[in-house]
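Archive transcription. Copying these from loose printouts into the bound notebook so they stop getting lost. Printout 1 of 2:
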Amino acid sequence: MRKSLFLTSVIISIITFLCLLLIISDPLITAILSSNSIFSELLIYLPGRELYLHSFIVIVFLLSGLTFSQLTFQCQKAERKADKKDRELLILHSTASISASSLDVNDFLNDVLNELLSYLGANYGFVYLIKKDTGKAVLFADAEAPVRLKKALANIPLDHPVVVNITEMNGLSKKIKRTHVLEVESDLFPEMDMDKIIAIPMVARKAVTGFFMFSMRQQVQLSEEDAYVLESVGKLAGITVENIQLLENTTKAYEELKSLDKMKDEFVSNVTHELKTPLISIKGYSEIMYEGMLGDLNEKQKQGMKVIVSNSERLNRLIESLLHMNAFQFKKQHVFSPLSLGDVMESTIKSLSLKIEEKGMILNTNYEKSLHFIYGNTELLKHLFIYLLDNAIKFSPYGSRVGIWAYEESGSMHVEISDNGIGIPENQIPKVFERFYQVDGSMTRNYGGNGLGLYLAKNIVEIHKGEIWLESREGVGTKSHVLLPLYDENGQVVCKQVHTLADTPVSL
């Protein structure tokens, strides 16, 4: 482009010169100048008019050449400036692209180092990460550096003038407008045998975390634009390195937590099995003694045995809930078969009969024993309704009513368990199915429990491809809903209507 502009200027100047010569040699122009016209009169008073005319032609030629030369120079200058801007944008774009796609610190810093090496035209470069615990800037990566230099500059003390200047410059730049690029005198690193050294800090969260260092054989003058571009690259590199390290630390911590969580689950499983073994004997013998099978008991003895039976049953439910939690965590397979929901409900009520009697509860049931079969696991469904009925009893006042209804609805068995207890705050309802969540989780809470009941109930319902939801008003009571698919005579699960939150009444 530069050559074409120069040739164009020369060609136009030559054409202008030839045109002027043709005009002067034209007969008409000669006649005008030699006649008695105004031009001829004027030329009488100009001695050596031919000389003036030719001088005029030369001046026009020179001015044309100078004008075109100036235009050529301006075009070349604009072209150089555009090329420089292109290089600046290219290094910024390359660094941003590398930053967006890198998940490894080593790969990222090596790629950025090579980009900067090409941009600066440096002979070789280094990347250092500052380790405050060791008091050194440690060499992390290099590009085309001799082996002897890598060994000599493997560690730079943090009190070295270069490192001190970089950190101080970062602090000063917050108060005054200056770039984060340091031009280091070569005598600070005599081993490098270079005329000039350039250091670019990596900054993250207003702190220097490392720096790039390049060795230049020629005296390269950095413009203000160059300095700002290098500063931007340094900041982007610092932030990216920090983000990658945070990701690595988070991933490592997550893996450790997963391992600890697995160990915890295995420990809980082992402990609960060990607790369950002696509890079976305690519970069995206490029930036999309470029923008088080992001899008659007086009222005080019977009352004492009743307390033992009640608490052993409570402990058994707690252990069962922990075992179920682990079974769900390890995705244990359960055996399913057609079963009568009426039998499951009767067994549930029997398991909680002592607790119902202790609180003087009035239990209202409304379901037929010959209900349509459902397809499921008897033990799991029994525990599902134990969790729901136990909550209804636990959170209801002494002598209040608890209701159980079961009926067919759109290809499903709909079970409702209601109470007139304390209810649940509206903003807490979405959270009650979370593991270990309790509405009153304080150490001084009035009600016992481990926060697993509704969590396990939801898991049991999901295993049976059903649905569960709650209606509750604080101070009024709670109604639990369970939908379970029916089982037809051909051994198929009947398709059920999907229940959505929109179908759920807002109040009791």
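Printout 2 of 2:
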Amino acid sequence: MKIIVNKKINNISVDELLKLCHEHQITVTYQQAQQAVQVIKQKKVDIYDDHDRLELINKIAYITNPTTAEQVNGLLLKLIKK
């Protein structure tokens, strides 16, 4: 299951990210989603690894804002627990 979830996150498209955020009431603009996807695709992320996930969240906070980054982290944690 870990492999599937990580593969999905690392290959997510802008539209998929926007849809996922919308489903979980996370406000992200199209431009922010584009930037986040670029960050995700720069380096493969293991969302089950706290260090990798937090590094990604910090980059997302820089692109968007700390509140959005916290919401995205919450979303990733939900995906991990599924």
